[in-house]
Amino acid sequence: MKNKQRPLSPHLQIYKPQLTSSLSIFHRFSALIMLGGVLALIGFFYSIAMKSELYACFSSAVAMLWGKALLSIFILFFWFFVGTSLRYLVWDTGRGFELKNVYASGFFVLIMSVVLTAFSVLALWGKLA
């Protein structure tokens, strides 16, 4: 058998990105972001418990614009992860697999993530700037 230089299965050259595949990929990516956030949260709690200068470092970082931006992005990924997890939970019951419902739930997750992020950020800082 000749060794042909071709993909073993259909790949990105054949399939164009769809909402469903993009949400699935970003769900996995958001899980990695959540892991990083949990590790940072553990470090924050450790700094509080040890009453170290690390707490002052965390506090000043969150007070700066880049710290607020980073925390806002983490909050966005958190709400996205929650939304897609609930979507998959509904799918585990065997419901919502009709193509119309799949796209509707996908758009709902995206809109819900942005809206809940906006509410969360406004609740944390009172205003965006």
Compute the number of structural domains: 2
Average the pLDDT over all residues and give the rounded result: 89
Question: Which secondary-structure class do the elements indicate?
Answer: mainly alpha
For the biggest sheet, the summary is: none
Beta-strand portion reads: under 5%
Count of DSSP H/I helices: 4
Number of DSSP-assigned strands? 0
Order of helices and strands: HHHH
Runs in which pLDDT lies below 50 for 5 or more consecutive residues are none
**First-to-last CA distance:** 64 Å
Note the topology:
Blueprint: H1 19-50, H2 53-63, H3 65-92, H4 99-125
Question: Can you give me a brief rundown of this structure?
Answer:
The protein contains 4 helices and no strands. The protein has 129 residues and is mostly helical.
Throw out a few tags for this protein:
4 helices, mainly alpha, extended, 129 residues, single chain, 2 domains
Commentary on this structure:
- 76% of the residues lie in helices and 0% in strands.
- It folds into two domains: 31 residues, no CATH class; 66 residues, no CATH class.
- The chain is mainly alpha-helical.
- The chain starts with 18 loop residues before the first helix and ends with a helix.
